[in-house]
Specification:
320 residues, six-stranded parallel β-sheet, Elongation Factor Tu (Ef-tu), domain 3, Rossmann fold, 2 domains, elongated, alpha/beta
Length: 320
Amino acid sequence: MRSFAQLETYQPTQTPLALTIGMFDGVHLGHQKILSTLKEIQGEATLLTFSNHPISLLQSMPLLSITSLSHRLALIEKEGIDTTFLLPFTHSLSQLSPKAFLEMIRKHIPFTHLILGHDAVFGKDRLGTQSHVEDLARLMGFSLTYLAPVTIDDAPISSSRIRETLAKADFKKTASLLGRPYSILSPIEKGAGIGKTLGYPTLNLPCVNLCLPPLGVYSVTAQIDKEKLPGIANLGKAPTLHRNRSPKLEVHLFDSPQKTPDTPVEVFFHQFIREERTFPSSALLQAQIEQDILLANSLAEEEAATKLKKNPDHANHNCS
């Protein structure tokens, strides 16, 4: 996937170009429908997104993201998009009318087809509604497609719904909306090594500005390159040992990875084990971690047994 941080640096080709515009936070099933439709159109599948959420600028309040910027771009690339434009959403951009906004884009990205989600609105004062953009498409001479929402439980999939499921640590519901298990993708930070002194070394992942599940201990799986390793993770401020000001994800793996991670690690969340709390001593914390590991292993065995009951032919196939 080719990526551009400025419209001016893009050199268009003779290939027809289909474009979609949006934040795509979480790259959920609704977003995936837009991207798959984009790829169905002959030509260069192109996406324009923003490095910061417009709401954070327009309402002067931070909106925590479901996926980090690097995670969002990685998921978009997995969907097979050819070209991505990543622009900062600025005050001057927010003052453009829908027509001026599209003219600015089309000056550098000569798209012939624009594909948008059912609830897409853009331009100053949110005047770029479907009816208005349809008029602009006729005036400016490009094809326009608005897609119907993808629904689950008779309601459209949205980033807001996903945030609600994360707040409840309802990872099964989150996965059904995302179309994949919920995860955090983040680089590894060097820690103080305190977990190692307790016998439980951890991988430490920052998770700043992310919409997170409740702080606490979770059963997880970490993917390091192509290797997937089970473990437990403390999502929180580590009050007994660290007293971090912002939450971090500290992952203890039950088995050591084949090599030390030098690329971002993806951590998949399975089940909530307990709330984060302060212990009077590191010895009591150590004893609790032992119990957490036993419970996480038990939960993993129960989940594996449930899957086996649902699909017994899979086990027979593996044994043949």
